[in-house]
Amino acid sequence: AAVLLVKLPHLHRWSEQRLAHAKVYNRELAGIKGLTLPIIKDYSTFHIFNQYTLASPRRKEIEAALQKAGIGMMIYYPLPFHKQDCFADLGYKPTDFPLSTKAADEVFSIPIYPELTEAEQAEVIAALKRILA
Question: How much is the average pLDDT of 4-28?
């Protein structure tokens, strides 16, 4: 609790920085074939962008290329719920929920932490454009 109390005054500023990074990503990555961006219909609502998650059927290729370039990325949900052992007793087949399976195979998150510099973000953007060109 003591650590969180020290961080609390910075939370709004950090969230604003994440939102600013998301706007840059949305502008710079828009229209790249084979890349699906998050849908943000209204910037007047406050989204904190804990992750900036994209989707691509070329995720494995993107992951390898970003890793080679020294750029971090994460796959937070590699398995849809119906394929996780803890839900096996629900009786779902592996082919149930094809959209969840597709999402689990394609989504990945790129850096969006508040301290991300313009140069670092530009490097992430350039790498994605290069990979998907």
Answer: 92
